Each structure stands twice: as C-alpha cells, then as structure tokens.
DNA sequence: TCCAGTAGTTCGTAACTTATGAACTATGGA
DNA sequence: TCCATAGTTCATAAGTTACGAACTACTGGA
C-alpha cells in the first residue's frame, strides 16, 4: 500500500543558491513560479496547459515538488486541492534580488520570443531544457 | 582518428536564461566563473583543485565547455593553453543584473558556510548538486 | 456508510545527463 | 624528431528526469 509522505518545506537557512538556480532553470518551473507570483494560491491543475503544450499531471506534480523542495514555494492542502504560494519575501531576504532578477530575465526573454514569433510564421520551436 | 571540434561560442542573442541558470547552478562551475571574473585569462589547469576537492581534468574540461556553450565565457587557445574570460559585459547587457546577482548570492552563501565551518569542527560537508 | 468524482502523489521504467578514466589531439621547445 | 604540457574526446557507469498507470486523500451526495 502506497504511503503519501508529508510535504517538505526546507527552512529558509537550508535554501541554497544552487537549488534555486536549478529549480528556475527549467522553463516550465519558471513559468509556474511566474504565475504563482501574480496569482497566489493557484493549484496544480491551473497549470495543466502551460505555454502551448500539455503537461502530464504527474510531471507537473514533480515540478511543484522541485519548487517546494528548493524552498521557492509553499504548498498547503485545502480540501481536495493544493494551494501554492511563493516564499518570495523570505527568499529575497536571504538572497536579495536573486529571484526577482531571474524572473525579470525570463520575462525579457519571453517577450523577445513572442516578438520573433509574430514576425516569422513558424520559427523552429525554441528548444526546451 | 579523433577529431578536435571547434569551440562553440553562441552569439549573445542565442544565450538563454535557462542556459545561464543551469550552468551556474553547479557549484564547481559557479566557482570557476567567480574566479574568472577576478583573474581574467585563467586556464583550465588553474582550477584542478577547487574548494577542497580534486576535480579530474576531463570533468573540468566539460565544465568549461558548459560555461562556454551557455555563453558565459569565451575561451581562446594561446599556444598550448586555453585562456578563459567572462563575457560579463555582453551578458549583462542582455540580462541586466542577472549574473552579478547570482554571483553575489553564491558569495553570500559561501561566506555563511565558511562561518559555520569555523564554529563547528567538521560539520557534514554540504551536499553538492 | 458507501460510492463516485476531483485533485494530486507515487511507482516503475525508459530516456536523457553527467562524471570520469583512458586514449587521444594540439602545440611548443630541445 | 621526440618529449612534455594542456586540454579534448570517447565509452560507460552512475545519476536524474519525464510520464503512464495505479494509487491516496478528500468531498459531497445518495
């Protein structure tokens, strides 16, 4: 019988730069984090469709876990669903500007790609990971 | 017969945030980058011993390649050795503050660890990757 | 209390990445 | 030409990630 282990939220002193960079180096996770930053409390299934491709539920679940265990988000069960919020204040206190700057860079890049895509018709889908 | 392929330096528009974060999410690569930032032109073998552990030459070579192909450094052959320099100006122009902030965070963390190590005698070597 | 539905997790495994020793290339000097 | 030095490539073992299938956990009826 499968057990459901408790969610792991590292305490802020245990959060590492390596961990944060690794977590946010994945475009799907960066997109999730970006969305959580504006719509706090969003659930896993709010993300089933991200950036023009369907992501399997199990994969998404792993991505949330990665963000959680890197210390970037906090997840709480509310009834049947899992509400997620960023830990941005804590993290920003520990590593000032880090996450904000990373997310800005991601945004800069997303804007560039959007522009490129409106110019050319179908420009060789940008390689993931 | 083994061929030696030409070094790949992506043009600055092809440098991605994902790539940068991934490259700098490895502590060895972050240490190399940090060192290059202060001692420009350093060679691969200057790094054979980094942060208390010996790193094999082949592994180091791959790390330099990763940094190079992420667009973070430029490598040029000078005689028998390979001189490496950061591409920090270009990269900073493309993603303002990104690399600087990441390196600051790494430094903050390194300082913390150093402090912790001087307090306790041998405190369970911090897990890599 | 049982059942169905919804939300998310875990497991197994296939696909991909990374680390490293051994063998190589490339260059310069004797 | 031969040797030494610096770094690269290859093969492969070890580690990581993605994803379908099967599960847990919870809620709201009947």
Order of helices and strands of chain A: HHEEHEEHH
Share of residues in strands of chain A: 5-15%
Q: By CATH's scheme, which homologous superfamily of chain A applies?
A: Winged helix-like DNA-binding domain superfamily/Winged helix DNA-binding domain
- The total beta strand count of chain A reads 4
Oligomer: homodimer
Shape field of chain A = globular
- Measured distance between first and last alpha carbons of chain A: 35 Å
Number of separate domains of chain A: 1
Q: Give the fraction of residues assigned to helices of chain A.
A: 40-55%
What structural class is derived from the secondary structure elements of chain A? alpha+beta
CATH topology of chain A: Arc Repressor Mutant, subunit A
Biggest sheet descriptor of chain A: 2 strands, antiparallel
Uncertain spans of chain A: 122-129
What's the pLDDT, averaged over the residues of chain A?
A: 90
The CATH architecture of chain A can be named as Orthogonal Bundle
**Main sheet: strand order of chain A:** 1-2
Q: What's the tally of helices of chain A? A: 5
Radius of gyration of chain A (CA) equals 16 Å
The CATH C-level name of chain A is: Mainly Alpha
Main interface by residue count: A-B, 25 and 26 residues
How would you sum up this structure, described in words?
2 copies of one chain form a homodimer. The first copy, chain A, is α+β, with helices and mostly antiparallel strands. Chain A contains 5 helices and 4 strands, in the order H-H-E-E-H-E-E-H-H. Chain A has one domain (12-117): Winged helix-like DNA-binding domain superfamily/Winged helix DNA-binding domain (Arc Repressor Mutant, subunit A, Orthogonal Bundle). Chain A has helices spanning 17-24, 27-38, 57-69, 88-94, 98-119, and strands spanning 49-50, 53-54, 73-78, 81-86. Chain A has a two-stranded antiparallel sheet. A two-stranded antiparallel ribbon of chain A has the order 3-4. In chain A, helix 1 runs antiparallel to helix 3 and helix 2 (27-38) crosses helix 3 (57-69). The N and C termini of chain A lie far apart (35 Å). Mean pLDDT of chain A is 90; it is low at 122-129. Chains A and B meet through helix 1 and helix 5 of A and helix 1 and helix 5 of B. The structure holds a DNA duplex (30 and 30 nucleotides).
